[in-house]
Please model this.
Amino acid sequence: MYNLLSPNVVNILDDLDREEESKNENEKIVVDIYFSKPEIDDLENVPIGQPKQKKRFPEIHKANLGDEVFLVARTENLIGKKLKIEIRQAKERQIVDKDKPIVLKKQDKSGSITITVGKGTKDKDENGQDYFSKYANANKLENFAWKSLLLRPENDSELEQWKRTIENSKEKKLYLYFHAEVVDQQDADAKFLNTDKSEGEHNFANSEGNYFEIGNGSEIITLKDIENLFGVKESSRKFRQEVVNYINQFGGEPIHLNTPLRKAHFFAQVGAETLGIDKNWIVEGDAGYYSVSNCKALFGDRAKNLEKKGLLKSYCDQRPAQIKLFNYLYAAENGFGNGNGNEASGDGYKYRGRGLKQTTGKGNYEDARDMIQEFFPQEYIDLVKFPEKVKEPKYAVLSALAFWEKHTIWKTADIIKVSTNENIKKIRKKVNPGLAGWESCKVYFEKGLKVFKVK
Model:
């Protein structure tokens, strides 16, 4: 295309574009308001003297009465500015009238919370060190404001009243949204993004357009539940907490994990697959190597056929990873398949077991991808292209929920209320047709009946 404008006009237009671009770069924006449970990531291969951690504020969509959460504001070009935020009653009168602020413990009686962008609740840590300099992503944190809150009223009598209100409500939940204002008048032109337009300007629901949900405890899974079920494992504590957070975030409707019995069965299967949610067992082969004997015990004829070829021992001895072994055991022509190609394709190792369910085989990764796209479109990622994502807590959880739904395991769970060998084998077969791990599953299910208070 030919430029028909004179050079002077072109220069003027270029200047206007740059001016507009500069103005947009300096635009004051409140991007989002939400509740979070912060996470600290340890970084690897960090140069000496550099921060070794990164702090994140992932959004949560639900919590329990009494939980500690962080009220978080994400902004642009508002460092040092104060925001006034109200946590308001949504939908209908529950604790207070609709659109009125609720008052949490140690909160101003007016219901408003004032936080300063770039400061959080304090400028220095307990050692007097600048709070942000501890983290590798300090420059990004300066655009955040946050404050710790307890999701409960000031006194216990009010707390009991809140519990009764939730219990007597139709959906057994308290619904909230957030209202925000910039305090300084000179910043009144700030824009508010990600707002829930149905509730009006400056009002925020969550990233899925839904209200924040508070339950009275019956639906929320806690780290204590996991430790009561599988025992305490300090090395897996952080990973388990992330798993709990994601199950609480994604395990509600329409996922069928909403009864104590279903939870007992779900976690029995997860425990059998991951040695009780041990972070070292989330990827098959990461915790150790298959020996000749346990290979034959677990894989039966596939391993015995490999032994007849005189290859089982050498495949088991391969280091640093048993790539040949996985490629043989999980190849289509060797009695496994599940969507994998032949031994030479490399699919066996690429699509080995990962996640809470130990998703194995290309076909199961495809199913997990498709189910996540159906139920959680905002979390979609092509797990066939990126199977290694399933080792991360979020996709370890989502892939397990996808399998639970794809194979309607919850329907079998609903009719098995008694722990007998026959019953446990029946549901275990839907997860592992070879029944490997059914004994562990039985032990975990019996504990789960108590932990989740199955009646």
User: Anything to note?
Assistant: Confidence is low (pLDDT under 50) at residues 1-10, 18-23. Residues 7-25 form the longest helix (19 residues). The radius of gyration is 26 Å. Residues 21 and 81 are 23 Å apart (CA to CA).
